């Protein structure tokens, strides 16, 4: 029997790639901790196996709250992927909902988190009060059928706490796939796991993070990439380096064709700005060795 009963739950032509993926996972990614299991959190191995059955809907959820009072929710983002009608699609059809909470309109983030409430790149937003928002979420839960759905989030345990403070409880049987876990299982040596960092490394263009639906959409796209066996099996290069602190040889993982960390730190617009919420989406132009840079990136293609 292949790992996680793959011979019975995934398409036959995908079994070798998925088996290779799961066998290569670090030890900590094979099983979720007891407390996480109780909360519905899937291990990376279980998330990969279940997502690749193409039988589970994916519901990505993100919430934005007021930076000074966490109990005040400002926005909810919902992004839905249903594989039933797009099993072999080359690009996913994703449906998005952006709820702007009426009670939160009097609050605006700006000190620690940018206020991107009106910068919804996925479509039209909805203004709703708390009762209406909870009704909308319940209707979405009913539509996707949470027993046949995997909830996707980025550091979702904190979002669940916010929803609980807000008065919304998730059913105990809900399954949760966390993109932070999927990322660390692919690149165990990575020291960063923020959403923007993962998007940069995976080559997913983005803008206006900290808008709830933008975040839920990007999280879902990242999840689909991170759960793709062929991508996982071919995207990462393992290299040996000498650790600057210990002087010991260590294995590091590098994503092919992705920007280097030092280049990401140079993103514009103005690093000297004292504003903590300065938008940081654009990379500083490369000024030296342009031809050599392109050549080096092309050589990393699998």
List unreliable stretches of 5+ residues. Answer: none
Number of strands: 8
Q: Averaged pLDDT, please? A: 87
Which percent range describes the beta-strand content? 15-25%
The domain count comes to 2
CATH class of the largest domain: Alpha Beta
The largest pleated sheet is described as: 6 strands, mixed
- Helices, by number, come to 12
Report the order of strands and helices: HHHHEEEEHEHEHHHHEEHH
- Overall geometry: globular
Distance between the termini: 29 Å
Summarize the structure.
The protein is α/β, with parallel strands linked by helices and 302 residues long. The protein has helices at 6-9, 15-23, 34-38, 44-51, 130-144, 156-166, 179-186, 195-202, 212-226, 229-235, 261-264, 290-299; strands spanning 57-65, 73-81, 94-101, 126-128, 149-153, 175-178, 236-242, 249-255.
What features would you describe in this structure?
- It comes from Ogataea haglerorum.
- Pfam families: DEDDh_C (PF21762).
- InterPro entries: Gfd2/YDR514C-like, Gfd2/YDR514C-like_C, RNaseH-like_sf, RNaseH_sf.
- With 302 residues, the chain is an alpha/beta fold.
- It folds into two domains: 3-234, Nucleotidyltransferase, domain 5, CATH 3.30.420; 237-299, no CATH class.
- 34% of the residues lie in helices and 17% in strands.
- It contains twelve helices and eight strands.
- It has a six-stranded mixed beta sheet. It has a two-stranded antiparallel ribbon with strand order 7-8.
- Helix 2 (15-23) crosses helix 10 (229-235).
- The longest helix has 15 residues, at 130-144.
- It is globular, with a radius of gyration of 20 Å.
- The two termini are 29 Å apart.
């Amino acid at each position: 029997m292949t790992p996680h009963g793959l011979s019975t739950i995934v398409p036959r032509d995908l079994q070798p790639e998925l088996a290779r993926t799961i066998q290569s996972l670090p030890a900590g990614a094979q099983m979720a901790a007891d407390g996480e299991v109780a909360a519905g959190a899937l291990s990376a191995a279980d998330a990969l196996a279940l997502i690749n059955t193409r039988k589970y809907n994916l519901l990505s959820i993100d919430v934005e709250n007021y930076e000074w009072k966490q109990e005040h929710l400002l926005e909810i983002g919902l992004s839905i992927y249903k594989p039933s009608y797009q099993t072999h699609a080359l690009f996913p059809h994703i449906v998005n909902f952006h709820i702007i909470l009426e009670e939160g309109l009097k609050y605006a983030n700006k000190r620690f988190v940018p206020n991107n409430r009106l910068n919804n790149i996925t479509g039209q937003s909805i203004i709703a009060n708390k009762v209406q928002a909870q009704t909308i979420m319940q209707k979405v839960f009913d539509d996707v059928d949470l027993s046949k759905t995997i909830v996707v989030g980025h550091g979702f345990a904190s979002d669940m706490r916010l929803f609980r403070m807000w008065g919304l409880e998730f059913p105990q049987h809900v399954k949760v796939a966390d993109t932070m876990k999927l990322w660390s299982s692919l690149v165990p040596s990575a020291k960063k796991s923020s959403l923007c960092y993962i998007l940069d490394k995976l080559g997913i263009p983005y803008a206006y993070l900290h808008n709830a639906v933008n975040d839920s959409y990007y999280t879902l796209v990242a999840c689909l990439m991170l759960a793709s066996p062929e991508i996982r099996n071919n995207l990462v290069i393992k290299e040996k380096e000498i650790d600057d602190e210990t002087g010991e040889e260590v294995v590091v993982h590098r994503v092919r064709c992705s920007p280097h960390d030092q280049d990401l730190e140079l993103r514009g617009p103005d690093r000297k700005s004292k504003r903590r919420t300065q938008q940081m989406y654009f990379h500083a132009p490369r000024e030296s060795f342009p031809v050599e840079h392109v050549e080096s990136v092309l050589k990393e293609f699998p």
